[in-house]
């Protein structure tokens, strides 16, 4: 089961991102999102909140250097879980916001 969370989906491997950008991201409970972000932005600063209650409130918030932030994915707002099938789309939103 752990292998599922640590493999980079092929669609994410094909994305083009400026790996030198220092991206800051806060993730609520998604190891898959963390692994994919580290793949795209190796210098990224990621805080991962994995609540003990496992509420399933999955969110990915990206911060620009000027302090502007954007919630790029939220299960609470109806966008569902982060899966290998949709993580590339989420990473594309991160790239669009950051770059």
Helix content: 25-40%
What is the overall shape? globular
Mean pLDDT: 86
Radius of gyration in whole Å, from Cα? 13 Å
Largest sheet: 4 strands, mixed
Strand content: 15-25%
Q: What assembly state would you assign to the polypeptide chains in this entry?
A: single chain
pLDDT under 50 segments (min length 5)? none
Organism: Paramecium sonneborni
Protein name: Selenoprotein W
Report on this structure:
There is one protein chain. The protein has 99 residues and is of the alpha+beta class. Helices cover 31% and strands 21% of the residues. It contains 4 helices and 4 strands; from the N terminus they run ααβαβββα. A 4-stranded mixed beta sheet has the order 2-1-3-4, covered by helices on one side. Strand 1 (24-28), helix 3 and strand 2 (45-49) form a beta-alpha-beta unit. Helix 3 crosses helix 4. It is globular and about 35 Å long.
Question: Concise description?
Answer:
31% of the residues lie in helices and 21% in strands.
Attribute tags:
about 100 residues, 4-stranded mixed β-sheet, alpha+beta, about 20% strand, Selenoprotein W, 4 helices
Topology (elements, then pairings):
Blueprint: H1 2-6, H2 10-13, E1 24-28, H3 31-40, E2 45-49, E3 59-63, E4 69-74, H4 87-98
Parallel strand pairs: 1-2
Antiparallel strand pairs: 1-3, 3-4
Helix pairs in contact: 3-4
Organism: Paramecium sonneborni
Protein name: Selenoprotein W
């Amino acid at each position: 089961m752990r292998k599922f969370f640590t493999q980079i989906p092929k669609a994410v491997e094909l994305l083009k991102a400026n790996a030198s950008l220092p991206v800051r991201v806060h993730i609520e409970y998604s190891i898959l999102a963390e692994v994919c972000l580290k793949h795209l932005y190796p210098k990224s600063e990621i805080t991962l909140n994995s609540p003990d209650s496992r509420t399933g409130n999955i969110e990915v918030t990206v911060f620009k250097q000027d302090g502007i932030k954007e919630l790029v994915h939220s299960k609470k707002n109806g966008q569902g879980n982060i899966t290998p099938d949709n993580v590339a789309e989420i990473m594309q939103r991160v790239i669009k916001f950051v770059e």
